[in-house]
Amino acid sequence: MTARVLVVDDKPVNVRLLEAKLTAEYYDVITAASGNEALERVKSDHPDLILLDIMMPEMDGFEVCQAIKADPSTAHIPVVMITALNEQADRVRGLEVGADDFLSKPVNDIALFARVKSLLRLKMLLDELRLREDISLEFGIVNGARSDDEVPSGLRTLVVEDDPDDAELIRSVFAEGGTTDFVPDVDAALAKAFDGGYDMVVVSLLAPGADPLRLCSQLRSHDQTRHSSILVMTEEDDIERLAKALDLGINDYLMKPIDQSELRARVRTQIHYKCYQDQLRDAYEKSVAMALTDDLTGLYNQRYLTTHLDKLRGSDAGKGRGALLMLDLDHFKKVNDSLGHPVGDEVLAEVGRRLKDMVRGRDLAARVGGEEFVVVLSHADAAKAENVAERLREAIATEPISVSTPEGSLKVTVSVGVAMYHDAGEKPDEQLKRADKALYEAKRTGRDRVVIAA
């Protein structure tokens, strides 16, 4: 994994040392000798990660980090503070101004590169999600996600820890909101994690039972826990296992003995990241759904219907009985002309709701035109298809639709054309044409009726 890394330090010897190490690992390295120069390089060179010294003249590392994280265009760039300061208060302050980690000089190479790789993976994920969000925003599909939103209440946390003192300290931090469950050993943790829907899992690498690293790997690879934030706790001399944990995809770590303030700061940072990623992911899923569904009715649209029919033809469900039902509202133009398009939209939305309620889960309903709908039935013979078509017609015709007019309701009917599965050589659009011809025949012979195509 290659990336552009900005090294910020006012001492040239420190810059050269880090530059040499990073270049040897094939990273593209850019440098800055002051806080102001660092902010300029961030804007001009768009680094993927920043290694930032704290003790600098004019503007120290805390101020630089705070400025980077306060700017929405750069807030997503990971920042690792590298300094000779060893006071716990300095570590906490660094985390509170937005730093993603805090490494002390002299820097352990294993710890450095493990953290660099871990944070770059996060940056790549955020970049991909943000790109998808930007595309969705251009089309007006979603509202932008906010990385500075308050941490929501009701978060669920699972803690794997057998030390009662550490467990009590952790409980005091997470007791500020949400639900925290404790398990004393690794063996019980996985099943608990799968069932709990946890936002964060805290794992002690010293917990008894099965391998805690194996637990981290399983948490990251299963669908139920893939997006949970994982924080591990270990001891200062356990660098190699910590590096392995970072390589497996954990989000952050904490060294024992646990400092309550540092734990609180790291937890808050990771929950912010998770909430932001969830917003971006939800926005992407919404944009995909909206690209495949009709805004007004919530039914699938023409694009999805075409893809569905193509896939259905190649599946076992499509190699046999099946039917297409094409429905069209009768005299709908008169509704729009006399009552207005807003009332027409109310009618379309209610018809879509009734179709959705009556169609089985394995079948599909779509809106393919202004007042035209298609229902795809799998595993249905002609008698079944005709029966379903009649039930849909009756469901719309027998109960007036509530609309915002002085009368308060409107009687609506539909005509339905049905085309059965013909043979494997018939293309979906040919079956749709047969359904359309049957629909035209239903219109021609009086409307509010079902006609089966020859």
Verbal overview:
This protein is of the alpha/beta class and 454 residues long. It has 3 domains: 1-107, Response regulator (Rossmann fold); 145-286, Rossmann fold; 302-452, Reverse transcriptase/Diguanylate cyclase domain (Alpha-Beta Plaits), CATH 3.30.70. 48% of the residues lie in helices and 18% in strands. It contains 15 helices and 17 strands. The chain has a 5-stranded parallel sheet with strand order 2-1-3-4-5, sandwiched between helices. Helix 5 (109-138) packs parallel to helix 9 (239-248) and helix 5 packs parallel to helix 10 (260-292). The longest helix is centred in the middle third of the chain and has 33 residues, at 260-292. Residues 147-151 have low confidence and may be disordered.
CATH homologous superfamily grouping of the largest domain: Reverse transcriptase/Diguanylate cyclase domain
Strand order of the largest sheet: 2-1-3-4-5
Low-pLDDT windows of residues? 147-151
Give the name of the CATH architecture of the largest domain.
2-Layer Sandwich
β-strand amount: 15-25%
| Number of separate domains | 3
Spatial gap, N to C terminus: 61 Å
